[in-house]
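Inputs:
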Amino acid sequence: MQKTQSKIIYSVLAWSIAFLIFFPILWTVLTSFKTEAEAISSSPSLFMFDWTLVNYEDVLSRSPYFLHFTNSIIIAVGSSLIGLLIAIPAAWSMAFAQTDKTKHLLMWMLSTKMLPPVGVLIPIYLIFRDFGLLDTRLGLVIVMTLINLPIIVWMLFTYFKEIPKDILESARVDGASLGQEIVYVLMPIALPGIASTLLLNIILAWNEAFWTLILTAADSAPLTAFIASYSSPEGLFYAKLSAASAMAIAPILVMGWFSQKQLVRGLSFGAVK
Amino acid sequence: MGSITLKQVTKSFGDVNVIKPIDLSIRNGEFMVFVGPSGCGKSTLLRMISGLEDTTSGNIEIDGEDATELPPGKRGLAMVFQSYALYPHMSVENNIAFPLKRAKLPPEVIKQKVTDAATKLNLIDYLDRKPSQLSGGQRQRVAIGRAIVRQPSAFLFDEPLSNLDASLRVNMRLEISELHKSLNTTMVYVTHDQVEAMTMADRIAVFNKGVIEQVGSPIELYQQPVNKFVAGFIGSPKMNFIELNTANTSNVATIGARPEHIMVTEDSGLWQGKVGVVEHLGSESFLHITLADGTSLTVKVDGDTAIKYGDVVNLNVAEDKLFYFDAAGLNISDSVSSIAQVLGTSKQAVEG
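Outputs:
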């Protein structure tokens, strides 16, 4: 009796918190189906309004959604894959060939994430300008890769550390080269960790707005820049902005939904053994 | 072929010398056991032979060729780890085939060799299973299977039985010994368990604090230990040591007597003591006896002994079964002619 009661209380509490977190997304999606007048109405209604798709039509006709969508995919997936390619050997050496400096190196890598991005804005902007990387997908892939690399290395390092060293050493005695050891033994064992690292970084890169807004204009702008274009000098168009936002987060939301099991497993890896 | 020669091999981690210069020659086909307490460097030396740990100085020769700088995979050795170190994502078949695939053998040859090894190790019904679906003993057999398919010049075993329960350990011990007899390949086996060492080895190297104290056949180590450390480490229960408090003409500082050589006698013997705990094992019993000066001794007697807690007993040892050690712990039994020579001056001390 006591048990079911506390179970109910916890369930209600958990659902309330989940709803609280989800509410802004829900509100955005609902607003995207309202007219501009209803969107800024001082007494907004949750469901009782004239549902309309006009915002979506407007957004799709006014700007090339699919170009931005493609840009987002290329930048998010591209930077995450390149990041993995660099981070796997890095994390291998930090987990399995540690020296007394490894800890400092890891800390130093993480410390770059503590720097406000605006601190390196001017040098990066100038470098991009001089190398002709402004408003190019390649430029954004490079910047995203570098920005998220510390996180990728850290995550992989934590997963790799959980793998018994013996198994890799055994592969070495069995005649595997370093590359074979990583490809045939380490990566398959660490696959859940690698997958969740990839997913998380795709999400991070997908949602990155600061650099995409600054370094892109039109051709290579991903969806984040596409949303921002709806807060223009002509004024704020809440309903259209919401429609654009809904379309921007939809793909990543769907991906997150289907891979949630993998994400949760990956994020709690090592915590419960 | 499978001889391994270590010449002045050392290993240091920073300022710590874990292996002091070691010379050792392991003969072709020999079952060599490295034994010693934990942290004595035996596993490190095995890992140096395998190439997993690099050598600080000195040379390691395998089959007469310098292998000091060779990577592990090129040394022609196979290793079985304490944790089995199976590849968890691969089936038993792929685990055993892994080294053969790395050696780029043709698939049909690999298939044949895997089948042969699996048959030999009773694993043929488990080829499709993952390591997690196997019992501890089966996992250990897969690890051995992975080692034997390569037909290495020597096998290295790093405490392979410590993760198994007691009865399984005895079985696997026999299986490994039989494997050695049938393959006739050099095996280097690391353990901290002196029973494993005594039962399996052709020769044993006793390690202590990064040096080899003694190398010899099990019976040599048992009968002629070079020092107190080896004497105490080999034999179970361990040898009793009776410290002599006063100087004597023969420089004996400690008398050693194995539990199985001490007899309980009716008439007065060398020592007299009070019986503490009596451990009955059925086939034999161990008496824990405290002498008047506080020295405790373990004595092995018959299983059906009537001696009980609190009894006072006289103890004696045949003259030729006693060991004598000097102050540095070295075995000086050869220079001592009789117990009387030693106790002549210090009998008082022993009897308190």
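Remarks. The radius of gyration of chain B is 24 Å. Residues 345-352 of chain B have pLDDT under 50 and may be disordered.
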